[in-house]
Amino acid sequence: MSILVDADTRVLVQGITGTEGSFHSRQCIEYGTRIVAGVTPGKGGTRFDDTVPVYDTVLDATRETEAEISLVFVPPRFAPDAVMEAADAGLRLVICITEGIPTLDMVAVVGYCNGRGTRLIGPNCPGVISPGKCKVGIMPGFVHQPGRVGVISRSGTLTYEAVDQLTRAGLGQTTCIGIGGDPVIGTTFRDCLELFAEDEQTEAVVLIGEIGGSGEEEAAEYIADDYALPVVCFIAGQTAPPGKRMGHAGAIIAGGKGTAAEKMKALQDAGAHVVASPSDIGAKALEVLSS
Amino acid sequence: MKLHEYQSKELLRQRGLNVLASAVATSADEAREVAEKLAAEGATRFAVKAQVHAGGRGKGGGIKLADTPQQASEFAGAMLGNALITPQTGPQGVLVRQVLIEAGADIANELYLGLTIDRSARCPVVIASAEGGVEIEEVAARNPEAILKEPCVPGWGLRPFQAARLAYRLGLDGRVARRVAATIMKLARAYDELDAALVEINPLVIGPDGEVIVLDAKIVLDENALYRHADLAELRDSSEEDPLELEASEHSLSYVALDGTVGCMVNGAGLAMGTMDEISNAGGFPANFLDVGGGASVERVANAFRILMKGEQVKAVLINIFGGIVRGDRVAQGVIEALDTVEVKVPVVVRLQGTNAEEGREILRNSELEFMVAETLQEAARKAVDAAGGGSG
Predict the structure, then answer these.
(1) Which of A68, B182, B253, B263 has the most other CB atoms within 10 Å of its CB?
(2) Residue of A116, A160, A263 best to disrupt the B interface, most CBs of B under 10 A
(3) Does the pLDDT of residue B393 top 50, yes or no?
(4) Whole-model pTM above 0.90?
(5) What is the model's pLDDT at position A289?
(6) Largest Cα–Cα distance of chain B, in whole Å?
(7) Do B387 and B315 touch, CB atoms closer than 8 A?
(8) Is A181 on the interface with B (CB under 8 A)?
(9) By the CB < 8 Å criterion, does A141 face chain B?
(10) How far is B277 from chain A (nearest CA, A)?
(11) CA distances from A129 to A17, A18, A139 (A)
């Protein structure tokens, strides 16, 4: 099994005709993802690459194609509206790749999605992949392999690094979720841990955090309360100075809070297996699953 | 984007908050003129405040209270053109280019008021404390009960009852409570209007006659929202920013200068932090954080090298690229082309992983340039730390 997306998931892409959107839509289709519709206002009635029908609105697209989730590649100024449109059309899941959305816009968007029962993943994330079944995002599909470990991360390439290690260790992945590097995101570490616990095939979870915020601490609290699966963690930014934003809008130690050391300690105390080196993620997962 | 105190106060004044009369001066003479003008309006004391982005100014001698315009001028003269060292600046301090001269205030009570994003509640939150005038983090550590919070519910914002509740819980009553509640409402509106990441009044002063005064103010704006605030974007003071960080941002590179000797260039912010951590695990110290972006194109890699090489303490460079959608052989080609246009005088360790990584490593090994090629991140970090002369830094 896997969580959030599988081989049958019907995906629509908002912003399918843009540079990013078209490039990554092709990559997803090549991977085997069922991209059933695209949405670009003003381009309704056309077809993307002569195959995928494009609609003016998400509502039209969902009525015609029974799309159930959306992948958003819309630029930051228009992405908040695009996510709300998808939630309004009743999609169960919206994955927003866009980086650079104002935080207060996301406060409104997250509130809106919660009010409509739509799960939002991201923004500023690589997306979600259930290896061998469905890739809804910008991650390189080939480093992944169907397997036993669930992956949750705030980062992009660091996740691919960890995934690559899991693949080399022969463990593979059930589903990998990039939750995003922004201060306000739709789905948290804790939410994903909950989903993985209900998945029969996931035997362990790799959690890749970073400095800033308290998502890792909240995950630790949840893990401490008898979490069903072993969790392997790495926290990036152990050497990051306070007060400096490290690339991601959410990666900042503010007011002495959100340090890697605090997060590592919280997770360790909760019973998670914390590694200090990003090179040890795969080996630690193997060790945990072999014991 | 950080604003200066004088900019923050002006934005708050425009939104109906009570700010004292003041003006900025860039010379001792100008400071005297401002103080004399304030004296003519009735001021009897004059605060002289260094306008720098770093916090903790008071502890570093960046805030002085003068009794006469002459003394204000002397204080200003001593600050201007000199480095101010505060607990937040590091030992080299920051250059003071301008000072704010403000009418002195009588203080009966000092409060703290602020708004920022509560990341776990996923909405802005008002933070208030009766212990004003000290750093809020200090209060939080020492006496967490002294910190009061009210969330701004998405779609509704802060409601007046919440502002009133805060005022009463701060121990205020009557007219003063009503005034402070009104101040809280105005501050919440300012936070929204400005697309702020942080607004802070510390202290908010209650005067002997119950007047409510914004004595110090700090605003940080959300960079991502500046596209819809052209007027606010103009308030940026680039002279307060690290010149290399500024140059990097002009090339859309994300760069943060650090103290170590191993320069690093990585695609992706998380992996860049992970690489720094690995350098530290290998006994070295990273010279910087640098994210060249997912693509790691020739142009970006070349610009990144230029910026790295300006860091004088850099003794070795570690390039760590996880080739995803972009293939490793293309990245390798890019690194070689980039090195054609930039002079790099220190050893370079390259670690490629992901798509076509082996082909990429082969291209690097066969090039005329002297690379050290590594397969794992650990190996790369060790080689780079050794090349930089070990763990000293």
Answers:
(1) B263
(2) A160
(3) no
(4) yes
(5) 96
(6) 80
(7) yes
(8) yes
(9) no
(10) 6
(11) 22, 22, 8
